[in-house]
Amino acid sequence: MQDQGELPSGVAAAWGLRPRRPKGPVPGLSVERIVAAAVAVADAEGLAAVSMGRVAKEVGASTMALYRYVAAKQDLYLLMHDAAAGPPPEEPASGGWREKLEAWAWGLREVAVRRPWTLRIPVESPPLGPNGVAWMEQGLRRLGGTPLGQGERLAVLTVLDAYVRGQVRVMADIAAAAGRPGESAGQGADSSMMGWYTDMLRRVTDAERFPALTALLRSGELEQPAGTPDEAGPQDDAAADFAHGVGLLLDGVERAVARASAED
Fold first, then answer.
1. Which residues are CB-neighbours of 91 under 8 A, at least 6 positions away?
2. pLDDT, tens digit, 9 for 90 and up, residues 142-177
3. Residue 191: exposed, middle, or buried by beta-carbon count in 10 A (0-12, 13-18, 19+)?
4. Of 61, 189, 214, 237, which is the most buried if we count CB atoms within 10 A?
5. Cα separation of 165 and 14, whole Å?
6. CA-based diameter of the chain, in Å?
7. Which of 131, 163, 145 is CA-nearest to residue 98?
8. Can you say whether residue 27 is alpha, beta or left, with left for phi > 0 and alpha for psi between -120 and 50 degrees?
9. Which domains, from first to last, does the chain contain?
10. Beta carbons within 10 angstroms of residue 174's beta carbon
């Protein structure tokens, strides 16, 4: 482990390695209480509502008092993101690496769907908080029985994490654009954003210039979650699309595992 003096202040605060010693401590104020208040604001009003001044008001302290515990707003973001993620779920007792890694991805998605504001925090590094590092540890463990190299295992987690973040954020943005910020994107039939989108595409494209897109539109599959039976309810659309995407990614990982096994 690095010397504590080399750790960024936010990372040190996340791990409790270098607690700030405020002059004239505010009774009842702590890093944990500050972070909990910031997370509550973000849950209720979104990340844009979080400021040092607003959080100070929520905890009944001055803004300057907060800086004695959290050195900068970016540090607060790091702490908020780690707190929102929480510890990872335990590794399933049964199943192979694929089933276990799929469960890991669904766990990430659950956090992102429940707290979409975490996707608005700029990513400045791989996980550094204790919960984020625990998620990475869990993911690596679930690939432990494969012949993939250590770097390949980390690459698999990076791709899955990027897919989770990207898919949930796009779905949330589509839902917000459709005026349904409280719903999961993909809900609704012809009145949904996807129905509107396919209608617009049909109006501006033709079979001569866009033959592949025309074939997709004619199939009707753009308005139906990929890999989902016709009887699936609209409320399952976003989850079904997610499951299909994860399956495609894991198909690729499975091929890489098979190739590595053949080379052993």
1. 100, 138, 141, 142
2. 999 899 999 999 999 999 999 999 999 988 887 777
3. exposed
4. 237
5. 22
6. 74
7. 145
8. beta
9. 4-85 (1.10.10.60), 97-263 (1.10.357.10)
10. 19
Q: Is this model's pTM higher than 0.90 or not?
A: no
Q: Residue 238 corresponds to which tokens in the numbers above?
A: 């976003």
CA distance 230 to 225: 9
Residue type, 114: R
For 118-135, the pLDDT digits (tens) are: 999 998 888 999 999 999
Q: In angstroms, what CA-CA distances link 246 with 21, 103, 154, 175, 184?
A: 45, 10, 16, 21, 18
- Residue 102, CA distances (Å) to 109, 163, 251, 257 in order: 11, 12, 11, 15
**Coil, helix or strand for 26?**
coil
Phi then psi for residue 104, to 5 deg, are: -60, -45
